[in-house]
Request: fold
Amino acid sequence: MAPEHDDAIGASKHALRAELRQRRREHAAALADDDATAERTQAVADRLAWWAMVRGAGVAAAYASYGDEPSTSALLEALRASSLRVLLPIMGAGGALEWSPYNGIEDLQPNDRGVPEPHGPRYAPRALEGVDLIIVPALAVDADGYRLGQGAGYYDRALPRLRPDVPIIALLHDGEVLPAGAIPHDAHDVPVTHVCTPTGGLTAVGTHREQ
Reply:
């Protein structure tokens, strides 16, 4: 069942989403001429994989990036090289995310929306109940931990399945961490626990900020 949304909050999210998408397009254009982008992307990947290993994670959920999202190719390989089992989402029926093992970049194929997905065994949405950390896409996150996604609601349905102790990490470009209160949110919205950016690295947000 889709979460219920307050119409005013939905309208505010829609307006902010349009603004953030434009910023991201401009950011992507600027990065096209930045020779250090690949180096920073690898540094983020290595940092997150190391952090996951130190925490003793055995299973991580992540996603395959597309368009102007921060690239996850190096991250997926770094997680797998750290002996983590990595699950990637598949857009299932009714707006639910199903999950499938990541077996390498070459195994990914775009779905009808252009989003890369794995083509191995498909697990039900409840597979998320067994992960030890999750890395999620976002257009922005504010200092309270509230995340603004693309608006389809897939992660609104998925994130409540996580155990309470599972870190939720949003991968962002620089400049996409906003001040507290900047992102409108519904009562059902699940905040992230951390953000990760190229220059800021991995940072706790929300109630985790002082940890």
Q: What stands out?
A: The mean pLDDT is 91.
